């Protein structure tokens, strides 16, 4: 009983520093400092709600995209382009990969070859996909995409080329969409 205030103090301090949402942290300053060009897009819930309002008024917008965006909480896109091959190491992404090995996350797709690698992770809660993370590496480029919220996997390919999300070769995407959207 005499340790109860101390335990409560520790619990309160821990709760105040832990994020409410177990959002993936992208501490990739080491890549940004080496890159000749970098893109950093962050669309938290308020920005997505604003975009969703605009999308609902745009009659030319695919209704499936409007529905998908309405269920999202966050979109983060990071892209790093390097002048030469070998300017980054696969280990530079290890902190992100370690977070994606946490409980609730699983690998949906892992494709590795001489041209690079694509790893797609999904987080599920209660049978619903609540997060998708894509790590795509090429000899002179790294792309990281994190999407949080209620996600319909069948409609996810429709987000490629939207909101700064590059065309990633997801199932359901045809290769011609890369050329027409210009987000390679």
Please name the defining characteristics of this protein:
184 residues, alpha+beta, 6-stranded antiparallel sheet, 7 helices, 6 strands, disordered N terminus
Topology at a glance:
Elements: H1 4-17, H2 29-34, E1 37-44, H3 45-57, H4 63-70, E2 72-81, H5 94-99, E3 105-113, E4 116-125, E5 128-138, E6 141-149, H6 153-156, H7 176-181
Antiparallel strand pairs: 1-2, 2-6, 3-4, 4-5, 5-6
Helix pairs in contact: 3-4
Task: Tell me what the structure shows.
The protein is of the alpha+beta class. The chain has one domain (23-165). The protein is 31% helix and 31% strand. It has 7 helices and 6 strands; from the N terminus they run ααβααβαββββαα. The protein has a 6-stranded antiparallel sheet. A hairpin with a 2-residue loop joins strand 3 (105-113) and strand 4. Helix 3 runs antiparallel to helix 4 (63-70). It is globular and about 45 Å long.
Structural class from helices and strands?
A: alpha+beta
Number of domains: 1
Largest sheet: 6 strands, antiparallel
Number of strands: 6
> What is the mean pLDDT?
74
**CA gyration radius, whole angstroms:** 19 Å
The helix content, as a percent range, equals 25-40%
User: DSSP helix count?
Assistant: 7
Oligomer classification: single chain
């Amino acid at each position: 009983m005499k340790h109860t205030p101390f335990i409560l103090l520790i619990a309160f301090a821990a709760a105040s520093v832990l994020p409410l949402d177990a959002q993936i942290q992208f501490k990739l300053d080491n890549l940004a400092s080496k890159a000749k060009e970098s893109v950093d897009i962050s669309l938290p819930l308020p920005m997505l709600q604003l975009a969703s309002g605009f999308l609902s008024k745009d009659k030319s917008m695919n209704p499936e995209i409007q529905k998908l965006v309405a269920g999202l909480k966050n979109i983060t896109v990071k892209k790093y382009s390097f002048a030469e091959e070998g300017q980054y190491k696969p280990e530079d992404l290890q902190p992100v990969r370690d977070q994606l090995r946490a409980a609730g996350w699983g690998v949906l797709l892992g494709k590795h070859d001489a041209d690079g690698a694509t790893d797609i992770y999904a987080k599920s809660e209660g049978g619903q996909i609540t997060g998708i993370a894509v790590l795509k590496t090429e000899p002179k480029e790294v792309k990281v995409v994190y999407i949080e919220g209620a996600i319909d996997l069948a409609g996810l390919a429709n987000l490629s080329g939207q909101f700064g999300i590059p065309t990633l070769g997801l199932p359901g995407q045809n290769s011609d969409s890369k050329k027409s959207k210009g987000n390679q």
